Amino acid sequence: MRQSEAARQTRTSKWYRRDGRVHGSLEPPTASPRTRPRRQRLWGQPPVLDAAALIAFAAVGMLSHDRALFLSGFVRDALPLLVAWFAVALALGTYRRQSLRRLLLTWAIAVPLAVVVRGVALGRHADAMQAAFLATSMAFTLLLVLGFRALFARTC
Questions:
Q1: pTM here?
Q2: Which of 50, 86, 145, 153 has the fewest CB atoms within 10 Å, i.e. is most exposed?
Q3: Could you list the residue range(s) of the whole structural domain that residue 44 is in?
Q4: Is 22 helix (H, G, I), strand (E, B) or coil?
Q5: What is the DSSP track for 51-104?
Q6: Are 71 and 10 in the same domain?
Q7: CA-to-CA distance for 132 and 86, rounded, in angstroms?
Q8: 8 and 48 share a domain?
């Protein structure tokens, strides 16, 4: 026997299907990944958000040092960071078994590794300038990665 529409609307603890049967959950189901727009599914993936945050870090760095945003600048600045990040993430299983601990471990290993690789590639010596760059990179990459993830979690 189907319940009236008014009775369905007054009950907030159960959700009813169109045929009147109780679905069993406390809230109506959200859109499944298959029903969400493809662009929303893609941008919601942690690897995409992390890559966007790391590219944003490189872009802000280039702009703050009066450099134009050219492909060569991204290859010089963002590519070592992206390669190190995803290599470490693959080794640690950061995206297979997601947790804040794995994310922080990926960050703690990948960013210093990328700074060292970039410094060697650019012929830089380990000095106070490189230490300052490492500290800045550590702080702002963490801020951007966590910020991009938090921002996306609030918008979806």
A1: 0.69
A2: 153
A3: 38-155
A4: strand
A5: HHHHHHHHHHHHHHTT----HHHHHHHHHHHHHHHHHHHHHHTTTTS--HHHHH
A6: no
A7: 24
A8: no
